[in-house]
Amino acid sequence: LAEREHGNLVIIGGAEDKRGPCVILRQFVELAGGDEAVVAVITAATEDPDAVSRSYRDVFERLGVRELLIVRVDRRADAFEREPVDRVERASGLFFTGGDQLRITSAIGGTPLYDALYKAYEKGTVIAGTSAGASVMSDTMIVGGEDDEAPKLCTTAMAPGMGLLRQVVVDQHFAQRGRIGRLLSALAQNPFVIGVGVDEDTAIVVRPSGVFQVVGSQTVTVLDGRAVVHTNASESSPSEPLALFGVILHILPTGHGYDLTRRTPLGPGDFQSEERAGKSNMAKGPRGQ
Amino acid sequence: LAEREHGNLVIIGGAEDKRGPCVILRQFVELAGGDEAVVAVITAATEDPDAVSRSYRDVFERLGVRELLIVRVDRRADAFEREPVDRVERASGLFFTGGDQLRITSAIGGTPLYDALYKAYEKGTVIAGTSAGASVMSDTMIVGGEDDEAPKLCTTAMAPGMGLLRQVVVDQHFAQRGRIGRLLSALAQNPFVIGVGVDEDTAIVVRPSGVFQVVGSQTVTVLDGRAVVHTNASESSPSEPLALFGVILHILPTGHGYDLTRRTPLGPGDFQSEERAGKSNMAKGPRGQ
Fold first, then answer.
1. Confidence check: pLDDT of A286 > 80
2. Cβ-count burial of B120 within 10 angstroms (0-12 exposed, 13-18 middle, 19+ buried)?
3. Is A242 in CB contact (< 8 Å) with chain B?
4. How much is the ipTM here?
5. What's the pLDDT at A27?
6. Which residue of A has its CA nearest to B258?
7. Best residue in B251, B254, B266, B271 to probe A by mutation, most A CBs within 10 Å?
8. pLDDT of residue A274
């Protein structure tokens, strides 16, 4: 497979471990260069950037990054300033915190800061996001909806995301908030997309090849709409439950993965054989994992 | 298809409408004979049989049944008495209330009352159950588990059910309590079964042919494990998230359905054409539905 020229993505379902072994954040740090890493934490999503910055400064310093930069974007005007752009350009890894995904895109979309982070991504910088920071990764993102609900058009509000991951709609806090209904609603409206539901304390590490591997304590649910033979999404009123026949569902725990291009699930063995063959730019796990 | 000799099942996901149009309960009454119906409400599942009896007496009398019988089973000894057996034998429709599914099976399983209701089922009596009363329908039933959780062996406790529906595991309050994880856990342990998750205020009407149609305001989720290519259920520790590749998922709102024998989803048109051809013993909808 020809690898596209961009960085890895680390898409985290929220509530990742910050006190224990920090398996997910450690993997992000490794991808950003380990003890050479310069990590920029972008707090655009949160209403409490001070507390969130402190929390991530603590954990990333403990994980041994060389430098920790905070990119604070409280208002859209901040995304036109030189300072945050400089920090994004200097970083070897970018990290979007949780909060509200619309705060990220409405503040950053179409600004010099967005251009800087997209350029960084193209030149190979790893970009991570948790919770709201996970949702913004795809072309179209889910911005709201009802948890624990049957799929309906009205249960899922969508908006343009940051466009780092194509043909995918990501949802987060997935099992813990009962969100399969809202992800299926997105899928029903265009079965072309692959729905990726990431549980809390769980992440996917997406390589440039379009293969991702799961890391963390829970699971990732993949909903593949390619085989859908029927949906009534275009005829349904907003509050009417949708019909959807033939979604393919995979549950992927740590070590397992998925090829987004070939739409095939992968077992731990698939990654080991790639590693042995030396063909892979797969993220190396941390010591002792 | 040769129709087996038994009654219809009405399997309700709990919280069915009892004050408005009562679409589900009305369909059950129609199947039990309409204004000729003799309905026996079996309160074995509940700890408050008085209040539950009153509630169903109100609604079934309003829906015009000829006679309403209460079958109270507070302790297992009650299921050996003549009176409850007589009532089950006289009824044209049996209705299991909600509560705790283990109360039903531990009180009734292997008693003369169970024999009476199984015989009634074989001679064509419709049997309905809501919530706990829905779970007991299958060979193996889910008796407990974590809501809003990734599938793990420990999230789903199972026990023998009443065996009225083969090859199926039913779950109820499905979307509303985020139960896909526990149903997938059941499926992972034997992908032979079809997982049927019934939402609140929603039911499946299962005909003797093995075809069911959905009625009610929400949806039914069907999880078909036949195409599963991989699961690690046998190697996993109880609290470890499971891997499961290739489950086929269907979302079925009212009017839609599923053929449990052929494992194919059905649209409203499939039922209409059957009706036109006069080949079906499908439940007729109530007037004005």
1. no
2. buried
3. yes
4. 0.85
5. 98
6. A245
7. B251
8. 66
DSSP B174: T
Polymer length of chain B? 289
**Which candidate in B131, B138, B209, B236 is catalytic?**
B131
Instruction: State the DSSP code for B282.
Output: P
A175 contacts B150? CB cut-off 8 A: yes
A154 contact B CB<8A: no
- Of chain B residues 197-226, which have a CB less than 8 A from chain A? 199, 217-219, 223
Residue B178's closest CA among A208, A41, A243, A179? A179
Q: What is the pLDDT of residues A170-191, one digit of tens each?
A: 999 999 999 999 999 999 999 9
C-alpha B94/C-alpha B88 separation (Å) is: 7
Cα A43–Cα A122–Cα A256 angle in degrees, nearest 5:
80
**Beta-strand relationship, A67-71 and A93-96:** unpaired
**Token duo for residue B11:** 């399997």
Tokens read off for A234: 């275009």
Tell me, what's the pLDDT at B210?
95
Residue ranges in chain B whose pLDDT is less than 70: 1-4, 274-289
Q: In B, which residues are within 8 Å of A184 by CB distance? A: 249, 251
